[in-house]
Amino acid sequence: EPEVTQTPSHQVTQMGQEVILRCVPISNHLYFYWYRQILGQKVEFLVSFYNNEISEKSEIFDDQFSVERPDGSNFTLKIRSTKLEDSAMYFCASILDRSYGYTFGSGTRLTVV
Amino acid sequence: AQKITQTQPGMFVQEKEAVTLDCTYDTSDPSYGLFWYKQPSSGEMIFLIYQGSYDQQNATEGRYSLNFQKARKSANLVISASQLGDSAMYFCAMSNMKTSYDKVIFGPGTSLSVIP
């Protein structure tokens, strides 16, 4: 069964450093998303991406965040200067049709120290 | 604004019994979709079941069924014949249908523990 692939599975970074989280959505999916889940808490929407541009972003997605689809297969989330409170599980998701559900990757656990 | 409420932070069920996980939602849009996801301790988000707001019948997928009561704005998940592997966090989620790419938003989740 097709899946959304995220790398790395776990990343530890120093506060103030830049990180790039990578995702390969399912090849025929058209809409892409990033979510985050702080440990034990709610899954929060960050940004949606369609047709090579951001279609919606949340209040969390400030100037420190950016997304890119550089080569037609990868979908990346960049955090320019990480803060301690950015520590969370970050999920990438993609969708073709809602009746099949949003397909989530297995997540990247980001730890900022 | 959309909102999902899951009032049961934790639930216990005996193996082989059925369990109902509650979900209520709020939206002003007439067209929306409702989802349930399972998150085991390993962390991945697994899609279980989908219900469209205009679907006449309640959705079913194997041991999962969605008890959709539109007037009450509830979308409860029923798991029949619980198994030990059903122990996980369960999230109710909703997406409006204004555009093809509307995001899905999640409720706070219910932690289900299946007891042998």
Would you give an account of this structure?
The complex is a heterodimer of chains A (113) and B (116). Chain A is an all-beta fold and 113 residues long. Chain A contains no helices and 11 strands. Chain A is globular. The mean pLDDT of chain A is 93. Chain B starts with a strand and ends with a strand. Chain B has strands at 3-5, 10-14, 19-21, 24-26, 32-39, 46-52, 60-61, 64-69, 74-79, 88-96, 105-106, 110-115. In chain B, the strands form 3 sheets. In chain B, strands 2, 5, 6, 10, 11 and 12 form a 6-stranded mixed sheet that branches. Chain B is an all-beta fold. The mean pLDDT of chain B is 95. Chain A binds chain B through residues 30-31, 33, 42-45, 48, 50, 55-56, 89, 91, 93, 95, 98-107, 109, and chain B through 33, 35, 37, 42-47, 50, 52, 91, 93, 95, 97, 99-109.
Structure summarized in a few sentences:
Chain A is mainly beta and 113 residues long. Chain A has no helices and 11 strands.
List the keywords.
heterodimer; A: 113 residues; mainly beta; four-stranded antiparallel β-sheet; globular; B: 116 residues; six-stranded mixed β-sheet; 52% strand
SS elements, strand count of chain B: 12
Number of beta-strand segments of chain A: 11
Given helix and strand content, the structural type of chain B is mainly beta
Helix content of chain B: under 10%
Order of helices and strands of chain B: EEEEEEEEEEEE
Which SSEs are present, and which pair or pack?
The complex is a heterodimer of chains A (113) and B (116).
Chain A: E1 5-7, E2 10-13, E3 19-24, E4 31-37, E5 43-50, E6 53-57, E7 65-68, E8 75-79, E9 88-95, E10 103-104, E11 108-112
Parallel strand pairs in A: 2-11
Antiparallel strand pairs in A: 1-3, 3-8, 4-5, 4-9, 5-6, 7-8, 9-10, 9-11
Chain B: E1 3-5, E2 10-14, E3 19-21, E4 24-26, E5 32-39, E6 46-52, E7 60-61, E8 64-69, E9 74-79, E10 88-96, E11 105-106, E12 110-115
Parallel strand pairs in B: 2-12
Antiparallel strand pairs in B: 1-4, 3-9, 5-6, 5-10, 7-8, 8-9, 10-11, 10-12
